[in-house]
Write a sequence for this structure.
């Protein structure tokens, strides 16, 4: 059992924060004079500005303390290191510059007003171009539907059914040859015309419609064009008992 003197000595090193007090590392600068523990409390209670306290000498003092003391109390050294880490973190946050809004210069705004009318044609042109861009690349909020906004309706045909058809075509395809980089891109509109001409009026399987030798990229383009024709109502699709069947649209 520990003696009363040992318990008293142990209680003596417990600081006001409820942990073991750090060792007496003395700090002296223009903004503060005292121990490391006192500096920790002052910073914690916002009684001192760390910007005025250099941290390099404090770190050096702790380093010398660890080297010079042969019987270093690990708990006290750890508490001192934790306090030092806290001070370094607070100092780092204090050194980060804060964004400040630049005050508006009334003189500059007043000086620009006489010339504002010179930019009105350019502003109008930019607004018109933005409206044209909205018509091309964004959906309308009104009840007006463009062809590219029509919903994709395949009635009772599921995505898995179409995926199975594409998988069978890819299995029949031959590998693509290396094409030159400068080769013109294919036109989906032209490919849609090719597919539309190939579709029969009566429902038929795609294996009987797409014949001959073809590459994998040709299959992809063919199938993309077919899906677009289905979406536009220019091609029809249905599921029979054994296969997925395709035909030209009634109005095509």
């Amino acid at each position: 059992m520990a003696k009363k003197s040992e318990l008293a000595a142990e209680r003596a090193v417990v600081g006001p924060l409820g942990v073991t007090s750090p060792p007496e590392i003395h700090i002296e600068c223009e903004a503060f004079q005292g121990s490391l523990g006192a500096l920790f409390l002052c910073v914690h209670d916002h009684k001192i500005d760390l910007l005025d306290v250099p941290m390099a000498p404090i770190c050096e003092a702790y380093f010398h303390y660890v080297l010079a003391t042969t019987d270093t109390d690990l708990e006290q050294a750890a508490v001192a290191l934790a306090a030092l880490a806290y001070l370094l973190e607070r100092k780092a946050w204090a050194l980060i510059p804060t964004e400040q809004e630049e005050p508006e210069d009334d003189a500059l705004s007043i000086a620009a007003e006489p010339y504002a009318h010179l930019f009105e044609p350019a502003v109008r042109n930019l607004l018109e171009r933005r409206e044209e861009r909205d018509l091309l690349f964004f959906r309308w909020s009104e009840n007006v539907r463009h062809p590219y906004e029509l919903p994709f309706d395949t009635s009772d045909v599921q995505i898995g059914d179409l995926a199975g058809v594409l998988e069978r075509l890819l299995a029949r395809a031959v590998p693509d040859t290396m094409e030159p980089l400068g080769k013109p891109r294919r036109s989906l509109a032209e490919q849609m015309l090719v597919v539309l001409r190939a579709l029969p009026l009566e429902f038929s399987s795609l294996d009987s419609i797409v014949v001959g030798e073809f590459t994998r990229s040709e299959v992809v383009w063919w199938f993309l064009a077919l899906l677009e024709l289905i979406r536009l109502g220019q091609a029809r699709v249905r599921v029979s008992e054994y296969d997925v069947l395709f035909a030209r649209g009634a109005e095509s």
Notes: The chain is about 50% helix and 5% strand. The chain has a mean pLDDT of 77.
